[in-house]
Structures are given as structure tokens and as C-alpha cells.
Amino acid sequence: MRELFLETRELADQTGTVRTYDYSILIGEMDVGGYSCESYGIKVAERGGAQASIPNVTCSAARIDELSGLLVRNGVTPAGLDDVLSDWL
């Protein structure tokens, strides 16, 4: 699986501590019936802290672009990634 770095954001947590998060698209392959297609997932990682990744979210480049923009704009952290993705799907 490859990782395509998107952006870094600095966000303050509830205590005011500034934390740095890296957002990336995961690129892999997914079996669909009798063939394989390129699939896209997402990764959010706090520098020096927690990370969350979800592979094989979609086979659509446009949809993963939409999702990644949403995550970066709204400053989604690793702890919130699962919830945001389940609402988005």
C-alpha cells in the first residue's frame, strides 16, 4: 500500500495544547469480483501520538478527494476518524 501525503494541520486541543496532524491518502488494490481495482483509504496521524487509518474506503478518486478535503478542513483527529467516516458513507 502506498501513502500520498496531503497536508499538515496544527490544531489546539481542549486544554489549548497545539498538536500537529498529518493527513494522507492510502492507495492500494481491492478485489472486486474477478478483477482488482485501485482503492483509496485515509490516514490521520498525530506527530508523536495516535494515528488512525482506514484502507479501501472507495475506488473513486473523486470521492476520496471529497473525503480528504472534508477531514482536513474540519480538523478531524485520529480519535474522530471512524465516526466521521461512518457518517460520510
How would you describe this structure to a colleague?
The protein has 89 residues and is α+β, with helices and mostly antiparallel strands. The chain has a four-stranded antiparallel β-sheet with strand order 1-2-3-4, with helices on one face. The chain has helices at 61-73, 81-88; strands at 2-12, 18-32, 35-46, 51-58. It has two helices and four strands, in the order E-E-E-E-H-H. The longest helix is centred in the C-terminal third of the chain and has 13 residues, at 61-73.
Main beta-sheet annotation: 4 strands, antiparallel
- Please give the order of strands in the largest beta sheet: 1-2-3-4
Helix- and strand-based class? alpha+beta
The helical percent reads 10-25%
Mean pLDDT: 92
In terms of DSSP E residues, the strand content is: over 45%
What is the rounded Rg? Answer: 14 Å
Number of strands: 4
Order of SSEs = EEEEHH
Globally, the shape reads: elongated
Distance between the ends: 22 Å
Low-pLDDT stretches are none
**Helical run tally:** 2
